[in-house]
Design brief:
By secondary structure, the protein is α/β, with parallel strands linked by helices. Helix content is about 45%, strand content about 10%. The protein has helices at about 25-35, 50-60, 90-105, 130-155, 170-175, 180-200, 215-225, 225-230, 245-255, 275-280, 290-305; strands at about 15-20, 40-45, 80-85, 110-115, 160-165, 205-210, 270. Helix 4 (about 130-155) links the parallel strand 4 and strand 5. It is globular, with a radius of gyration of 21 Å. It binds hexanoyl-coenzyme A and NADP nicotinamide-adenine-dinucleotide phosphate.
Length: about 300
Amino acid sequence: MHTQPMFKDNALRDKIIIITGGGTGLGKSMARYFLQSGANVVIASRKKEVLESAAEELRAGIVNPDHPITDTNQPDTNYGQILPVVCDVRDYAQVENCLKQTVEKFGSFNTLVNNAAGNFISPTERLSHRAFDAVVDIVLKGSYYFTLAAGKYWIEKKIKGNILNILTTYSFTGSAYVVPSACGKAGVLALTRSLAVEWAKYGIRINAVAPGAFPTEGAWSRLFPEPLRKKMDPSEKIPIGRVGEHQELANLAAYLISDFAAYITGEIICIDGGEWLKGAGQFNNLEMVTPEMWDMLERMVRGTKK
Ligand code: HXC
Ligand code: NAP
């Protein structure tokens, strides 16, 4: 069931959605499901070839009998289309250009998914200041540039837009060895909660999801390189005992950007199989204690009364 699409019809048919970093990984999986749910989708990132091949794959893979995906050059179908746009989220002029191309193609837009990210593992003292900037600029600056440009457009046009930010669970716990990413994501968390209040008067909602481990080439190659993967299996830390399926994240994202979630704003929803909570509880590692050991420990602890 958890690998199945959630919506039964074109629930996102009125949505025109920009997904930053939408040409790979989780961004592409969300794009696929949003298209299947009837939305028009823009995927925006730096690499033209990656975007174009993703757009081709998405067009070819869509199975939607009511609204089949057609070539982006056919303006007669007004939803279920995909537009790839080359855009570096760190450059405000490119962000504005992405919005312009979106509006030229689809007439307007009402949904933004801030998904683009940069990350790698490293002891912090080994980083140059440029390495720190490289990650924070993509994650935080990229998110507030897109959010600002979208918000200005929506407020001026009186559009009740909505934003979904893709965080991580260490946005609120912090984490060693990915410190620039943790700083950037924590900033995006603050952006989410702050603007949820400030822009509610314009009808703009802003939420976030905090995924746990969802295998993607981008994340796994940088965070769990082969030698490390042999030593630590990410799923071992997860109470539910497995990593996430992309469709599970796409279902949650689709719900939050849909009008079914009209009363939800400023919320951060974890989808991690219980991983961060397991790491947080001081006695969680006692699950290694066998029933026989528990018998012995109980006798010892009760014995302290004497
Ligand atoms: C130390 C590094 C480094 C590394 C780059 N740098 N990689 N330092 N360790 N592994 C340094 C460089 O030496 C340089 O500093 C500076 O960072 C900029 O490097 P560039 O290669 O010029 O940067 P750029 O081309 O902008 O690429 C950005 C990037 C790259 C972040 C470094 O990895 C990238 O493009 N990533 C995009 C995709 C991605 O990261 N996806 C994973 C998201 S996963 P100097 O001083 O030498 O000039 C995620 C999930 C988290 O966020 C949770 C999972 C459970
Ligand atoms: P990914 O495939 O590497 O996605 C990152 C995307 O960001 C790429 O498409 C990349 O495209 C784009 N990007 C990077 N720098 C950019 C820039 N300057 N301008 C525009 N686009 C840029 O990794 P992923 O695992 O799918 O991650 C997607 C999101 O999920 C990220 O926010 C990540 O933090 C979050 N997340 C992932 C996991 C996981 O387990 N996978 C867990 C928690 C959170 P270009 O290189 O073409 O620019």
